[in-house]
């Protein structure tokens, strides 16, 4: 294979496990609502927000490309259901989302994540490609990445080609010299290969490979393995 120049990473469930992060962020938001807006807290429980989000996605599937707008607008719907006027509901929902987002970026990295990023940043251009809304500056790792593209910034979520193409345009590097590392078999690994990239499946949560996608040989079960695998690919 041609020498690698660009390595991109998915974020959630690739550099840190995300389910517990979201659970704690929802708990933090619920506590804030109970203190600041007790009259609406019941309308905006975590379960109720999920119901409102599902309803919004059913009515407007494009919400899947902007998870910030989806959660914020679901919260606004809850405030409206509690009797707030539309504009006031949106203002309060924005406040609530800021509380959620601050907590959502308090992540606990997988073992080896920071070490591997620091090592690779010395030899490769690094980028982040995510369907989520993590904030690398808030998390404290933005200095390790040349760019960060998300479904929100490019307008389409993976597995669509838009984010991968944006990465190539950001760097001027050809797809055959780019490697994507991600946890999702379809949105990360299969998509990257379909768009001409190399790919590594970061199976840090020990999931099964889906039967409808051709098997992929390059996989790791912890991030410490990534340096050796990249050396093998280069060699």
A few lines on this structure:
The chain has helices at 19-36, 38-41, 46-59, 67-81, 86-104, 113-121, 136-139, 151-154, 162-171, 185-194, 226-234; strands spanning 6-9, 125-130, 147-150, 178-182, 198-202, 219-220. By secondary structure, it is of the alpha/beta class. The protein is elongated.
Description:
With 235 residues, the chain is α/β, with parallel strands linked by helices. It has two domains: 6-17 and 108-234, Rossmann fold; 19-104, Four Helix Bundle (Hemerythrin (Met), subunit A) (Up-down Bundle). Helices cover 49% and strands 11% of the residues. The chain contains eleven helices and six strands. It has helices at 19-36, 38-41, 46-59, 67-81, 86-104, 113-121, 136-139, 151-154, 162-171, 185-194, 226-234; strands spanning 6-9, 125-130, 147-150, 178-182, 198-202, 219-220. It has a six-stranded parallel beta sheet, sandwiched between helices. Strand 2, helix 7 and strand 3 form a beta-alpha-beta unit. Helix 1 packs across helix 5 (86-104) and helix 4 packs across helix 5. The chain is elongated. It starts with 5 loop residues before the first strand and ends with a helix. The model has no long low-confidence stretch (mean pLDDT 95).
């Amino acid at each position: 294979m041609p020498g690698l120049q660009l390595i991109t990473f998915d974020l959630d469930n690739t550099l840190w496990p995300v389910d517990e992060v979201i659970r704690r962020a929802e708990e933090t938001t619920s506590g804030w609502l109970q203190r600041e807006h007790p009259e609406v807290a019941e309308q905006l429980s975590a379960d109720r927000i999920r119901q409102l989000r599902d309803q919004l996605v059913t009515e407007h599937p494009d919400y899947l490309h902007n998870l910030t707008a989806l959660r914020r607008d679901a919260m606004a719907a809850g405030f409206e259901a509690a009797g707030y006027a539309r504009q006031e509901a949106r203002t309060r929902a924005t406040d609530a989302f800021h509380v959620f987002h601050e907590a959502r970026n308090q992540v606990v990295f997988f073992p080896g994540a920071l070490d591997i990023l620091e090592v690779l940043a010395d030899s490769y251009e690094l980028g982040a490609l995510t369907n989520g809304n993590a904030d690398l500056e808030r998390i404290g790792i933005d200095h390790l990445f040349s760019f960060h593209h998300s479904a929100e910034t490019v307008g389409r979520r993976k597995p669509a080609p838009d984010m991968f193409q944006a990465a190539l345009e950001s760097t001027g590097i050809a797809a055959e010299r780019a490697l994507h590392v991600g946890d999702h078999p379809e949105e990360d690994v299969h998509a990257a290969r379909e768009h001409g990239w190399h790919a590594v499946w970061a199976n840090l949560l020990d999931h099964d490979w889906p039967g409808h996608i051709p098997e992929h040989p390059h996989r790791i079960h912890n991030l410490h393995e990534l340096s050796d695998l990249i050396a093998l690919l280069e060699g």
